[in-house]
Amino acid sequence: MEIYRDKTKSFEERAKDLVSKMTLLERCEQLKFGAPTIERLSVEAYNWWNEGLHGVARAGVATMFPQAIGLAASFDDELLHTVAEVISIECRAKYNEYSKKGDRDIYKGLTLWSPNINIFRDPRWGRGHETYGEDPYLTARLGCAFVKGIQGEGEYMRAAACAKHFAVHSGPEALRHEFDAVAGPKDMEETYLPAFEALVKEAKVEGVMGAYNRTNGEPCCGSEYLHNKLVEWGFDGYFVSDCWAIKDFHENHHVTATPEESVALALKNGCDVNCGSTYLMVYKAYQDGLITEEEITAAAEHLMRTRMRLGMFDETEYDHLSYMDVESREHLDISLEAGRNACVLLSNDGILPLKADEIKTIGVIGPNAQSQKALMGNYHGTASRYVTILEGIQDAFPGRVLFSEGCHLFRDRVEGLGLPGDRIAEAQIVAEHSDVVILCVGLDETLEGEQGDASNTDASGDKLTLQLPDPQRLLVKKVMEVGKPTVIVVVSGSSLNVEAEPNALLQAFYPGSEGGKAVAEILFGKTSPSGKLPVTFYKDVHKLPDFTDYSMRYRTYRNERAEDDNVLFPFGYGLSYGDVRVVSAKATVNEDTVSAEIELSNNGRETADVLQAYFKSDSKDAVRNHALCGFKKVHLKAGEKKTVEMTIPKSALTVVDDEGRRYLDAAAKTTLYFGTSQPDQLSEKLTGKKCVSVEIKL
Q1: Between the N and C ends of the chain, which has fewer C-beta atoms within 10 Å?
Q2: SS3 state at 648
Q3: What angle do CA 64, 212, 141 make, to 5 degrees?
């Protein structure tokens, strides 16, 4: 038996043997994202490009979960793992069925180019809602859970995850093909690299995708520095370029002069497969003496090793998965649960939960009330059914529900022949005839997203402001003037300032195909909200550092200047219908960890909440404020007291010096804070709760 067919051999051995039987030209062709068939070796055609950020995307029906930023709002790594398991089950099921039909098209393979673990450092970035927020610790923990859920623990991977975009990538979208993101050693080690390192070392992520931009002068898909980091971390998967990023080397970054030189720069720095067309020139680059046969062979071996790990040449434990496993009731229920957890209650004067038996008429107003796009976010799949917020309320409320679109999402009129503000009067009439108003505003992927995909071409997908689009600002003003009790539901993937003080404010992010039902359950109290903000919500974009400034000095909750008073709602903040508090905490320092016992009490109704742990060090190399070092989703019944154990790795309590050296500063004073929010003054003011602090000696 040939080695590559022998299941007793390692995947590495089998891949090497298979590639050794290919001609050099065949090896070159396997480095394209659309790799061709090699019939004599039983190598089927394979397209490496598939997406699974919050559900299998772009290839027909699949369960659609909340967008990644909404999943991050759960602060629940177990939920992320479960969601990822469902995504990979459906991915494998669809792959099995497509393969039987000989359909090996784009978006139909087992290599999912997710998750996006870039740091959402600036609220203007249009793709920020693809990420897990602004904190590297939260991003690493949720990212690891997602990767493990995607890849599974079987003999073969159920699907292959991919950590992207490596590295230091978060806008501006309009400049991404030519931009040089400059970050010092401290910011690299403290902020931009930790999640990638965790996914490689801990979660054993199978793929890493390079970013479009340069980092400190080197294009990310051909960076010696970044490649050496992967080697240092022990990465043994495959590396893929972002799509058409390698042609940027010579067309936009101007670090090479020809496509052949770009091929050489990428291949020599570990880029195995090219999403794009530049690797059509691999053989020509070889003929020109720019790359060696050994370099081509190594890349092909990496790709075949991944395909071996996915069981593409064998029978696997996943062969039974079929189309009946796609968008099942069980999977939809998980999407609904994720939607509940994605919602963050930002303010509430007591109006929520609504008392349905005391209300006769509810007015639902706004462009995102009956919008399916408001449920999605980008890189989304196709659900067979969408429950909008309006539909969720109609299904949950036994009384009369009135509706007005109120305005277009961003244009000044709904009807082309109408006058500006053509739905404002209707919105006010609906409000006047209602006991309570639910005002649904915000954005969708056409206003914040990826360059080329979003319709706001003036900003290439990024946001220019934290305000609502002008028609919605007018709508909010005119509806609030009616004076009826009003709940504003914001659907967006990032920080917005609604410039109003409603009776309650609910941030739903992009809550998935079941999102309208999830929102309605929270509004009517069937579910208590438990989400927390994975990003800081700011008041004014003009008080932030320049968008192109990648220094973390004045960015995110860890480094903000308190004197700027620009924070609207802090990272980690979110209310519930319960009253969960930390009563006491104690911590024991072990060799590699800190063990904590935290006593919680709930003086309100039954709810879930997020226990959060932060540390503050007086080390000269610590972040300015404090940093997240632990979190756990907890459930408490009304009146319940509970003791929760939390293990904090000492690695989460390290600091980083200006040269990028990470270390545990045992000489510094270290304080742990335990609460259901940050230990900052604004969180204390908004929640009425203080964190419990414990000093430890490392």
Answers
A1: N
A2: strand
A3: 50
- The CATH number given to 3-324 is 3.20.20.300
> DSSP code of 142?
H
Per-10-residue mean pLDDT, the chain, length 698: 93 98 98 98 97 97 98 98 98 98 97 98 97 98 98 97 98 95 98 98 98 98 98 98 98 98 98 98 98 98 98 97 98 98 98 97 98 97 98 98 98 97 98 98 95 68 95 98 98 97 98 98 98 97 95 94 84 98 97 97 98 98 97 98 98 98 97 98 96 96
* 671 contacts 620 by C-beta, under 8 angstroms: no
pLDDT of residue 1: 80
Q: What pTM was estimated for this model as a whole?
A: 0.98
The answer to whether 121 and 134 are in contact (CB under 8 A) is yes
Q: 343-535: which CATH number, 3.40.50.1700, 3.40.50.261, 4.10.480.10, 1.20.1280.260? A: 3.40.50.1700
Phi, psi of 590 (to 5 degrees): -105, -170
- Is residue 585 within 8 Å of residue 578, measured between CB atoms? no
Can you tell me which residue has the tokens 């395909």? 307
Two structure tokens written together for 512: 């998935």
Neighbouring CB atoms inside 10 A of 667's CB total: 9
What is the pairing mode between strands 436-442 and 361-365? parallel
Q: In the chain, where are the structural domains located?
A: 3-324, 343-535, 580-696
Catalytic residue among 76, 122, 242, 248: 242
Place of tokens 């009129």: 413
Q: Which two tokens stand for residue 101?
A: 């039909």
pLDDT at 458: 64
In the annotation, is 17 catalytic?
A: no
CB atoms within 10 A of CB 592: 9
User: What is residue 689's three-state secondary structure?
Assistant: coil
What's the CA gap between 645 and 631, in Å, rounded?
11
DSSP string computed for 429-471 = HHHHT-SEEEEEEE--TTTSS-TTTSS-TTTTT--S-SBPPHH
Q: Is domain 580-696 given the CATH code 2.60.40.10 in the classification?
A: yes
Distance of CA 446 to CAs 6, 374, 416, 450, Å? 50, 10, 19, 9
Beta pairing, strands 607-617 & 627-636: antiparallel
Q: What is the pLDDT of residue 460?
A: 83
Burial class, 106, CB count within 10 angstroms (exposed 0-12 / middle 13-18 / buried 19+): middle
